[in-house]
Amino acid sequence: MKLAGLKSIENAHEDSVWAATWVPATEERPALLLTGSLDETVKLWKADELDLVRTNTGHSLGVAAVAAHPSGIIAASSSLDSFVRVFDVDTNATIAVLEAPPSEVWGMQFEPKGTILAVAGGSSASVKLWDTASWRLISTLSIPRPEAPKPSDKTSSKKFVLSVAWSPNGKRLACGSMDGTICVFDVDRSKLLHQLEGHNMPVRSLVFSPVDPRVLFSGSDDGHVNMHDAEGKTLVGSMSGHTSWVLSVDASPDGGAIATGSSDRTVRLWDLKMRAAIQTMSNHNDQVWSVAFRPPGGTGVRAGRLASVSDDKSVSLYDYS
Question: What does pLDDT average to in each consecutive run of 10 residues of the chain (321 residues)?
């Protein structure tokens, strides 16, 4: 696999761009790129030209995360204003507004069948699960507290949850915390199965392999990308190459590669057989907060696509083949 830069939009937003995901294709339209920014807006872009389709407003503070429903019909944006806004992709009509206390809405992802939206709960030390039919909170998966915290140390009594990822079959949910640990839950039983170790700094991004529900990738401020067996609770491998924090990780649709974005301002492509970085892209001049592979599907889709967004306010699009 190889990346080739296709197009970059400078000043795609008026402030840092923290979030990106792909809205799957529907029968009426191809996939769209969805980006969220500290400028309080969410934007939709055409997949091949990066032409702006629409700018969505509705938040009063910066957008920290975006998520797209597998149907391609609805999407969600979470903001530092403590609200998650669920909206119709094609009309921007508000479908639901989910409220959370401050610092309790970070990463989020729809379950693969689309029935649940999982939200990483930040300082609540939990993951909140919302039913997408009623938009009611149906479960809270709590992260266990560290053992025997010092009475004077208020921060050690809770974990700050930054990232969340569903397994491809929807049976497992993983979340990454500020202290470097990763928790894996059995969602049907709302039960913590185990904690994965291997990082000693914040885990800002997680993604399961699309072809093997056991394999989980994690990116951390320690500069490493780790590969875990999420069922056997073992660290399969650790890949290094970034010179600073790994802020985002995503897996290619065929499961053969992953891409990462880092505060070292680069996007890297990793071959999973070699377990090494095979390409470094330097399109951005500030930290890269999110990388996202376009999902397969849609009529007339040409090649694969990878998108990246950055504190430099730009959006970059790459071809991969």
Answer: 92 96 94 96 92 92 95 95 93 92 85 96 91 96 72 57 95 95 95 93 96 95 96 92 96 95 96 94 96 81 85 94 84
Whole-angstrom distance, CA of residue 236 vs CA of residue 221: 19
* 50 C-beta neighbours (distance < 10 Å), count: 17
Please report where in the chains the tokens 């609770």 appear, as a residue.
233
Kindly give the residue spans of alpha helices, DSSP state H, lying in 14-110.
none
Residues 278, 177, 174, 236, CA torsion sign: positive
In the three-class reduction of DSSP (H, G, I as helix; E, B as strand; rest coil), residue 105 is classed as coil
Helix H or strand E segment including 227 = strand 224-229
18 sits in the region (left: phi over 0; alpha: psi -120 to 50; else beta) called: alpha
Which amino acid type is present at position 302?
R
pLDDT for the residue 148 = 52
Instruction: Give the tokens for residue 286.
Output: 């500030």
Tell me which residue of 148, 165, 245 sits closest to 210, measured CA to CA.
165
Nearest-angstrom CA–CA distance, 236 and 158: 28
Say what the pTM is: 0.93
**Pair 166, 141: CB distance under 8 Å:** no
Per-residue confidence (pLDDT) for residue 47, from 0 to 100: 87
Cα distance between residue 36 and residue 20, in whole Å: 6
Q: Report residue 280 as tokens.
A: 């470094």
164 contacts 109 by C-beta, under 8 angstroms: yes
Q: What values do phi and psi take at 208, rounded to 5? A: -85, 155
Concatenated DSSP letters for 240-266? E--SS-EEEEEE-TTSSEEEEEETTS-
The answer to whether the beta carbons of residues 247 and 203 sit under 8 Å apart is no
DSSP 165-222: EE-TTSSEEEEEETTS-EEEEETTTTEEEEEE---SS-EEEEEE-SS-TTEEEEEETT
Is there a contact between 178 and 202 (Cβ–Cβ < 8 Å)?
A: yes
DSSP 144: P
